Each structure stands twice: as structure tokens, then as C-alpha cells.
Amino acid sequence: MGARVNAVPARTSPARANLRLARFSRSREGRNPRNGFREALYVINALIFRAFRRTPVNSFKWLASAILLGVLAAGCGQKAEEGSTIRIGSVSPLTGPQTHIGKDNENGARLAVDEINAQGLVLGGKPVKLELIGEDDQAEPKTATIVADKLLDAGVVAVIGHLNSGTTIPASKRYHDAGIPQISPSATAVAYTAQGFRNAFRVMANDAQQGKALGQFAVGKLGARKVAIIDDRTAYGQGLADEFEKAAREAGAEVVAREFTNDKATDFSAILTSIKGKSADLVFYGGMDPQGGPMAQQMKRLGLNARLLGGDGLQNANFLKLAGADGEGVVASSPGLPLEGMPGGSAFKAKFEAKYGPIQLYAPYAYDAVYILVEAMKRADSAEPAKVVAALPQTDYQGVTGPLKFDEKGDTVGGAVTMYEVKNGAWTVLETVK
Amino acid sequence: MCSPSSCLSACWCSGPPACWASASPTGPRRGRAVLRVPGLAFLYSRPGLAFVLLAVLLAALPFMVGGGLGNSWVRVLDFVLLYMLMAIGLNIVVGYAGLLDLGYIAFYALGAYFYAWLASPHFGLHLPFWMVLPMGAAFAGLFGVLLGAPTLRLRGDYLAIVTLGFGEIIRIFMNNLNAPFNLTNGPQGMNLIDPVKLAGVSFGKPLHVLGMTVPPTYLYYYLFLALTLLAIGVAMRLQDSRVGRAWAALREDEIAAAAMGINTRNTKLLAFAMGATFGGLAGGLFAAFQGFISPESFTLWESILVLCMIVLGGMGNIAGVLLGAALLTIIPEALRYLGDLQRATIGHVVVDPADLRMLLFGVALVSMMLFRPSGLMPSRQRKRELAAEDGVAEQERADLYDSRA
Amino acid sequence: MEIFTQQLINGLVLGSIYALVALGYTMVYGILELINFAHGEVTMIGAMVALTVIGALVGLNPELPGLIVVLGGVLVAIPACMALGFAIEKVAYRPLRHAPRLAPLITAIGMSIILQNAAMLIWGRQYVSFPPLLPQERHEILGAHITDLQIFIVVLSFAIMGGLWLLVERTRLGRAMRATAQSKEVAQLMGVNVDRIISATFIIGSALAAIAGVMVSAYYGLAHYYMGFMLGLKAFSAAVLGGIGNIAGAMLGGLLLGVIEALGAGYIGDITGGFLGSHYQDVFAFFVLIGVLVFRPSGLLGERVANRA
Questions:
Q1: Nearest by CB: C145 against A264, A303, A324
Q2: C-alpha dist (Å) from residue C257 to B131, C218, C241, C277
Q3: Is A265 left (phi over 0), alpha (psi -120 to 50) or beta?
Q4: Chains linked to B by 3 or more Cβ pairs within 8 Å
Q5: Whole-prediction pTM value?
Q6: Cα C283–C289–C295 angle (5° rounding)?
Q7: Which residue of B lies nearest to C120 if distances are taken between CA atoms?
Q8: Cβ of residue A70 closer than 8 Å to a chain B Cβ
Q9: Which among C224, C266, C279 has CB closest to A274?
Q10: Is A30 on the interface with B (CB under 8 A)?
Q11: Residue A259 sits at the chain C interface (C-beta within 8 Å)
Q12: In this structure, what are the phi and psi dihedrals at residue B229, rounded to the nearest 5 degrees?
């Protein structure tokens, strides 16, 4: 064992590598915090690389490397320079299954930032520029908190994000502790604004608002009497289904079945058969299109003649593809007004599509969120987080997604919800409910 | 980056004989190779000085990392320590006792939920941290025994698949127990969990001391570090203890171990319980640290991730396990820059680092088993056992089901 | 009553699919005593390859009859999966044949992760929809509905199982397989090329997986890189339930598990008065698995596996 390692000629090279690294880093040290950052990364990479190449590793080598890294790290510790540039964070999953939706959010925010910069923003008598820092939370709660710290390190004055409720909630505590405003374009879980954080806002109707609208619509307009409810046991699906159940009961419908599936399931025949046995006339599904599509098919296959109703998780193009011909007549909601009907809506669409291609989902909300933030900054005449947080509740803004005001919790007031139905293989607007 | 230091501490903490041998220049005695670092040679003969240096380094690490790389990397450091705790625990089950547990994350989840039950507005209980944490660890340990008991007669693959089943069952229950009574708040997760509060200092807010502001991540770092060092100490002591030898015997040949008078049932259960206790401890810390937990943090992939850590680092060897935990926590964070780099240079992401991450884990698992089954830092014993040799292994591949028990 | 019949039919169709995948597990396990974790992923790759071919065929000539198109997809997917199965065994399992159990088990998990992520890189993360090419004519039996496709799935599963049974019991290759399963050393002494037999086992199992994959995606109308994992776990549970290493056992176990799941998810809410519900559907498979392994590890039809060495 010992002989083998001694035979490896690379015995002294790590030390030399360390020296080389040290020299390399010293030459640039202290110029720019970002360089120091990158250099530290090189060292980490070197450490990792060596760990892979040469083992068993003697402890002292590690010690040496660690000390080196420490010295280096301590040498380049400087705060980001504050100037006429204001940094705003945008967080959404930029890798992983929701990449396209995440990038969409960031693009929406970026479009707004670019526009505002082009118009010129003056705060406290001085012209300022906005800089958007896009971060990736991988739709993972743990990563979300790391990213939140990263943005705080970068000295952001506000955050637009995150995309998912599951990441927005743990990260919101970080922003709350740091006292900077957070506006989520798309997190809909009630819990986000129910924490009592004064800095947390959202521009989309929450699950309670959407679920309530859906429940009233199902009973009032679709005439449902016996309702079956299925959810996919995710925070989104369950939250929406619970609120729907409440609203449907209040409106006088009978909930004949409450069934469950999960967000990876493909077979719903057992629960649908059970629902059929209870002769429901409407099936509400709280979940996303990968399950909703096959569910529509299996309902037809089982001869279950009830209408399928869903939330914004179903109201997308992928659902139409997965459900095929069996998707006909399915109704789903989406918060906000149909973009085409909004003043400035089609203009936004044209601008966005010229720059980034088709709108995926929530880009208009991220766009509005940035404008609301900047409006608040203008009112406060400052980008200071505390002042912006104080100014945000007075928001009264006409965005591309509709009129936006906040209640005392930070939820939108009177957020509209629009109902769509699949007709001839396309989503068509049924009506907008307030 | 804290890996090197903690690996070191693994050696220093466990007291002189076992540890110093591995670092001493006369290494071959223990079968370890030694590499001299020019300029640091004086340390070899001065253990005391080295110890002081190490302690200073560990204490200063968050400030160096935080100052140089920012607070977010201190948080990464905290997660490194959490995963180290978990890896040490799983190593007891897999590395020491040779029981492949694919549902280990369940104990992490149990520890986290237990902490959330007793220290959050969910039930209106706000018990102090020092009380909840050991209780949570014990609670997870108890579940370790409960889940371990039915599997006593199973070995190898069957054990792996049953533990996987248990892990999923626990997660599914956590995800669904918001009705008929609201125990876990279901998929919504539990929020506003109390931060750690020790001696009147709340870890939830930055601490102002001596004119300095110490962010919570730093405070958690010291707490996690202390507990990780404790766990390392316990694990090393266990390995060389009577129980540790019994585990090794069990791992090598269960029938022979039984013949030597080892109570295989209790020994196995103890391994499960010890492993689960560390998992529960880490879980409780995770809950306090994050302030929010939901079932999506406790999927099967997390179990596999922790398993990857100990396989990569070296099963059965604490230093290796710590190295594995550090690498697999830091690499994904470092890979993130790959995405940023692509965005900065080409404007969009061609190779998604998140995709790459899982693929790399898979490749690492397979290639480690094929080319270096004993891990990056192997324990001598496990290395011998895992080497593909005829004869020795054949007899270990005995039956899956022990008809005696 | 018709609801109960319908649930039985649901369970039988689901169970047939489990059974077909379970056959692959059981063959490999019977011979190597190795859980080929990657088998579920081979099923997924089969579905994905077939879908790609089907998409290309439809794109080339939309007039082709659906059955021919699907057949074309299957005929490409089978050799692709055979090659994949062969490669997996050669690369990941063969070098570790003499290593302790833990090693091949960990490579099996590793292979499963690799295949999943490779599929994700190739076919993307989105769910891919399967075009409605196969006849979905609905029939009524005792008030319950069953489609042509469902009947076809059940019949095909039984036919394949019968064919496999004949192969193992009546052919030279089958005899060599059984000999290898009994004892590799002795089989070798008798002139059996053990390496080749093990390769053959993987190849046959993978071909079955390809067929199962296409059936699953045709039945549910979609395919996804993640679909193999849970399917594989369920199928493994089915194989264990029936008695691992036993072909008829895999079939019985698959059907039973399918029916247990369907009836469980359909009735548990009513039986327990809402205390437990269909959210525990996946738990049933695991409970069955754990129960069988703990109390009767040989399964329903298996021989005792204890002390075989």
C-alpha cells in the first residue's frame, strides 16, 4: 500500500500546485470581489480534483490546502460596491423539470427591468440603473435558502420570486430577516403571506382565491350538484382542492368523494371507478397536466360522464396534447385576466415574443411585479428596502395582468380568475370572475 | 472545504493511538501512505501545535468562507456538516454492520418532524431546543428499532428493498397525515419552526457581540460542528468497541458471528438504532435551521445521495465518509457555476448542471464499484472485503434468508 | 356490483402489465440472485424508443394503419432493449459476479440513475404523448367497461408468459438456464457456457421489458423518463409476492398486486370511513412486499430460498 503511493511521482506536485494557485491568486487579489470569488472556486476545484486523483490523502495535505484557501478567502473579502446601480434578485428554477417556466419568469422580470432602464429611473434626485440578478433555486427548498443568502450577499434591495410555493416559503424567512421586499409572481400557497411577514407580497390570486372562484363557478355556472374531488398530494394540488371543497360545499354542492393520487401516477382507473359508483356529476382535479391529461382519457374509457374541472395546472397546451380528443369540454381556470383583453396586454405579448419567444406561463406576472416594485421605489423616492416595504402596501397599479392592489397580508385584492373551456382542441375563454 | 479539516478532526478527536498512527510518518505500520508537505514538516513532530492550528482553522472557517465567498457558502458549509452527520449515521448501518439501508432518509424526516411538532405553532408547543433535539434523536432511534425488527432475518438485496419500502411508506404518511387529524400538515409542510435558542441566544437573528455582527449561518456552523465532532468521536469509539467488533463480525459472516456468541439480533438492532439516532439528530437540526419542512425534502433520492456519499468516500472509514459528504454537497453547488458560465458565455444553458449532477452520481456509483469498490479513502478492512476475489466472496453470497432466526 | 367488476378489470389490466415486467426481474433473480434495479428503466427506454419510431413513421406517412405503426415501434424497441440489457450485464454486473452482494446492488442502483438521466437528456423532461393509434373500442361486461386494448394487454401477457414457460421448460436453452440457476459451477462442468446463458437471460428479459414499455405507454397515452422506476418497484414486489425465480409466480403476483391495488384504492376510503384513503395506494405494494419478505420470503409459489448455497 505504502509502496504504491510512494511510487507515484506526483508526490510533490500538489504542493507545487498549491503554490502556483497561491501565486495566481495573489496577483489579482483585491481587485474585484468577483475575481476573488472565482479564484476561490479554482482552489475548491483543485481540492476536489486532487481528492479524486490522489488518495489515500494524508491529513496534512488537506490542512495545508485548507489554510491556503482560508488565507486566500480572507484576502479577497470585500463587500459589493454600492453605487448608482440597484440590484434586484429574480429567483426561479433555471435547471430541472420546470426550467422553461422558470426562465419565463426571469425573462418577464428582465423585460421590465430593461424597459425601466431605457426610460431612466431617478430616485432621490439621482439617476439609477437597475440590475437584475437571476438565480436558480432548482425548485428545491434547501437550495432556495442557499440562493436567498447568495442574493443577500450580492446586496440586492428586493427579490422577485420564487416560482414555487415550496421554495418561496423557506426563502421568505431569509428576506424577512434581512428586511428586503419580496414579491412572488407565482407562489399561490396561502401559507406564504399567512406568516405575518410585512415584506412578503404576491401578484397572483392565491389558492384560496382561485379555489373559491372555482367552487362557486362549478356550482353556480356549471350546475354541479354531486362533486368528486381528486388532488395530487402536492402543496399546490392539495391547497387548491381543499379551498375548492370549502367553496363548493358553501355553494350547496354535495362532496360525494374525496380521492387522491400523486404527481407521478398514470393510473387513475381505481379512483375514477369508485367515483363513478357515487354518480358524481363533476370531478375536480387539483394538480398538473401530466396527470390531468390521462385522467380525462380514463374518465371517457370508464364511461364516467362527469365534467372534469381543474385549476391553472391544467390550463396549458401540454394538457391538450396529453388528453387528445378526450380533453373536449374540460374546464380549467387561470388567475388574472386573459392577456388579450388587457390594456397593454397585447403590446406586452408582442414585446416579449419579439425578445424571448412565446410566453410560457407566468412571465406577465413577473413583469408586473417589477413595475410594482419600481412604483413603490418612486413613491418612497429611495431604493432603501425599509422605505420600499413601507411604500408597497399603497400599491394601486394597472398591470398587464389586471388591476393590482394589496391587502394587509400582501395578497392581491379582488384578483380576477378567468375560466377556460377546451373547444375544438383549444382553450377558449368562458368568462372572467372576480 | 470544511471536509479536509473535519477529516482531520476525525483523527484528532478519537484520542491518540488509533488516530495518530494514520498521520504519523511511520504510517506503513497502519498501512497508510504518508505525504509530506514541504514547510509543514515541523507539524509531524508537534501534535499539540497541529491540534491548536486545526482548532483555530475550524473556528475561523466560517469567517474566511463568509468573508471570501459570502454568506451563502457558509450555508453550504452548514449543509456539509448536516450531511456529514447523516453519512456518519448511515455508515454505522452500512459501513460497520454491512446492512444496506435504502430508507435512511426516513429517520432524518422523523427527526425533523419531531422537532417541528414540539417547537412550532403547529401544536402551539415551543419546547426548548436542548430538550427537543435529544428527544427527536431518541424518537428516530426508536423507529430504527421498530423498522429494524421485522427485517432481522433479511439480508442483502431483500433488506435493501424492504428498507426502501419503509422509507417510502414513512414519506407517504408524512405527506398525507393532514387528515383525519392534522399531524404533519400534509404536503403544505410545517412552517415557522422555532430556531435554535441556546443560553438566551436565538440563532434566528444575527448576534451582535464585541461590535461584530455574526449571522445565524455562522452560529449554526458552530453548533453543527460541535455535534459533528461529537458524532465522529462516538462513531470512532464505537468502531473500536466491543459492539463495533461485533458489527464487523456480523458483516463478515453472520453464522460465524452467532457461533462466537454474538447476539446477532441485538447487535443488528443496535446498528439500526444508532444509525437512526444520528439521522434523527440531523433531521432535528435541519428543521430548526430551515424553519420550514415539507415531505419533498425527504425523497428516496436523498437516501441514495447519502448512500453515494459513503460509497464514494469509503464505506466503513469515517474520514472517507466525511470526504464523500463534503464532495457531494459542494460539487452540485460548484456545478451551478457551470450553468452561470454557459449563460454568461453562450446565453443559454446547453448542458443543464442539474441533469449532469444526477448522471454524475450514477456514474460515480457504478464506476466506484467497478474500479475502486472501497471508496476514495478506504478502510483497510472493507477494502479487502469489497475486492472482487473468488472464494472469499462466494461464501459471503450465502443465502438471503436466514432460516434460524 | 358493476363497480366491483370494473375494479376487478382495472386490477387485472394493471396486474398484467406488472406481471410482464416482473417476468424480467424473476428471470434475472432466478439465475443471478441479483435485483436488476435497472429493469424498470429498460422498460422506460423501450417505450421511449418505440415512441420515437412511431412518431417518425407517422410523420413519414400519416396514412399507415395504427397497428402497423405500433408494430414497427415495437420491432425497433425490442432489439434496442436487448442490446441495452446485454450491455448492462456486461458492463455493470459481470465484472462484479464474484464480488460481495453489496457491490452489484449498488451498481444496479447506479445504472438505474444513469439510464433515467440519459433518457431525460435524450427525450427531455416533458411527458411525451402516445398517439391514439390502437383500437379503443369499448365493450360492456356485466355492466363494466373494457376496451380492445385492455383485452389485448391481458391476452398478450398470458401468451408471453406461456411462451416463456415453454422456453424455460422445453428447450435446450431453458434447461441450461435452469442448470445455471441451480449451480453455476456444476452447470459449467456439464458444458454449459454460463456467461452466454446469463447474457441470454438479460436479453430475453429486456425484450419482454420493451413490449411491456410499449404497452404501458399505449395504455396510458404517455411516456416519461421517470415512468420506469415506480413500475419497476411494483413489478419487483409482484415477483416477490408470487415467488421470485418462478415464472408462473411472477404472473400470479402481478395479477394479485394489480387487483389488491385497485380494490384497495377503490374501497379503503369507504371501509375505514375516510380514515385512510386512496392516497395510500402506493403503500399497498410496499406493505405486500414487506409482509411477504418478512413472513414468507419464498412467495406464494416459490420454493424456500433459504440455505440454498
A1: A303
A2: 44, 21, 8, 18
A3: beta
A4: A, C
A5: 0.82
A6: 125
A7: B355
A8: yes
A9: C266
A10: no
A11: yes
A12: -60, -40
How confident is the model over A57-104, as pLDDT tens digits?
444 445 455 555 544 444 444 334 445 889 999 999 887 777 788 888
Look at residue B196 and give its three-state secondary structure. coil
Q: Which of B388, B364, B363, B389 minimizes the C-alpha distance to B375?
A: B364
Closest CA to B198 of B128, B292, B112: B128
The CA distances from residue B126 to A266, A399, A401, in Å, are 42, 43, 42
B17-33 in b/e burial notation, b at 16+ Cβ within 10 A? eebeebbeeebeebebb
Measured CA to CA, the distance from residue B365 to residue C176 in angstroms comes to 32
Q: What is the pLDDT of residue B90?
A: 95
All cell numbers assigned to A285: 382535479
Give the DSSP letter string of B351-363: S-HHHHHHHHHHH
Q: Using the beta-carbon criterion (under 8 Å), do A73 and B69 form an inter-chain contact?
A: yes
DSSP type of residue A191: G
Which residue out of B91, B366, B395 would a mutagenesis test of the C interface target, given it has the greatest number of C Cβ atoms within 10 Å?
B366
Tell me which chain A residues have a C-beta less than 8 angstroms from the C-beta of C7: 270, 273-274
**B399/C116 touch (CB, cutoff 8 Å), yes or no:** no
Neighbours of chain A (3+ CB pairs under 8 A): B, C
Residue B245 burial (CB < 10 Å; 0-12/13-18/19+)? middle
Q: What is the mean pLDDT of residues C90-112?
A: 87
List of residues 6+ apart from B54 with CB closer than 8 A:
A63, B5, B8, B9, B12
Residues B351-377 as b or e (16 or more Cβ within 10 Å = b): ebbbbbbbbbbbbbbbebbbebbbbbb
Taking alpha carbons only, the member of B66, B91, B67 closest to residue B78 is B66
- Cβ contacts of A35 on chain B, cutoff 8 Å: none
> Mind telling me how many Å the CA of B266 is from chain A's nearest CA?
34
Cβ contact, residue pair B336, A136, below 8 Å: yes
Q: Give the gap in angstroms from C-alpha B126 to the nearest C-alpha of chain A.
A: 17
Q: B114-160 pLDDT, tens per residue?
A: 999 999 998 988 998 889 999 999 999 999 999 888 888 887 778 88
Within 129-168 of B, beta carbons closer than 8 Å to C belong to 150-151, 153-158, 160-162, 164-166, 168
- How far apart CA C84 and CA C100 sit, in angstroms, is 24
Alpha helices of B14-70 — where are they, by DSSP H? 16-23, 41-44, 47-69
A322–C3 CB contact, under 8 Å: no
Of chain C, the percentage scoring pLDDT greater than 70 comes to: 97
Rounded distance, CA B139 to CA B129, Å?
Answer: 15
What sign does the CA torsion over C125, C130, C131, C136 have? Answer: negative
Q: Dump pLDDT digits (tens) for A357-388.
A: 888 888 999 999 999 999 999 999 999 999 99
Q: Would you call B359 and C283 a contact, using CB atoms and an 8 Å cutoff?
A: no
How many contacts (CB atoms, under 8 Å) link B and C?
Answer: 153
Which residues, in sequence order, are CB contacts of C60 under 8 Å at separation 6+?
none
- On the question of pLDDT at C241 being above 80, the answer is yes
Cell numbers representing residue C113 in the block = 440513475
Query: What is the share, in percent, of chain C residues with pLDDT greater than 90?
Result: 45
Interface test with C, best of B370, B384, B396 (most C CBs within 10 A): B370
Question: What's the grid cell of residue B114?
Answer: 419531531
CB-neighbour burial class of residue B131 (10 A; exposed 0-12, middle 13-18, buried 19+)? exposed
Q: HEC profile for A51-103?
A: HHHCCCCCHHHHHHHHHHHHHHHHHCCCCCCCCCEEEEEEEECCCCCCHHHHH
- Average pLDDT for B80-87: 95
Percent of chain A with pLDDT over 70: 80
Q: Which residues of C touch A271 (CB under 8 A)?
A: 265-266, 278
Interface of B with C in 266-295 (CB under 8 A): none
